[in-house]
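Justification of resources, computational component.

The compute hours requested in this renewal are based largely on the per-chain cost of generating structure records like the one below. Each record pairs the submitted sequence with a full structure-token output. That output is archived, and it is also reused by downstream analysis tasks.
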Amino acid sequence: MAQGGLNLGNTKYTYAVARIRALEVSLFSDAVIEQLMACRSAEEALRFVTEKGWGDPSGREDMDSVLKWEEEKTWEVIRDVAPDMSVFDVLSYPKLYHNLKAAVKEVCTEKRTPGIFYD
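The structure output for this chain reads:
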């Protein structure tokens, strides 16, 4: 599938590699990870990662929202560069398993619990 002498498959691969390489500079270095591990509390660790640019810029700074925001950013990049998302299906199994257990619990206890399921 050549267009103007350029193979479109190679262009997508080159874009994906370049995008990932550009994002690598924002990964935590060994020194930063050591600093994170030295935090004495969860609150201190949360403050540390938000100072490093993690989390939603709108300001919600609780652990769950920071991790959810970072996970969504990661999946956005994967969706952008992955040729076949089905290879990542296996990563959804823990959340699917949790949702199945939560559904069984709600049926057995006949109690509804808001926020019990993963998206």
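The longest helix spans residues 63-81. The beta strands are 2-3, 6-7.
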